[in-house]
Specification:
Elements: E1 21-26, E2 29-33, E3 38-39
Bound molecules: zinc ion (ZN).
The site of zinc ion has 7 residues, from loops.
Length: 50
């Protein structure tokens, strides 16, 4: 039985590293920490408030 999978942080879609923070720098640009890959805002930011 899964152990609260919704509580786990997302994985980076590029490198698979666990994402601990998302920095949105524009309407179509965002960077995840700590790996630093660029992603589309909203892709991982469930519940993120600008
Ligand atoms: Zn990455």
């Amino acid at each position: 039985m899964p152990d609260h999978p919704e509580d786990q942080p997302p994985d980076c879609p590029h490198c698979g590293h666990t994402v601990t923070a998302i920095s949105v720098v524009g309407p179509t640009e965002a960077y995840v920490s700590p790996c630093g890959c660029e992603i589309a805002p909203g892709l991982l930011a469930t519940g993120f408030e600008p």
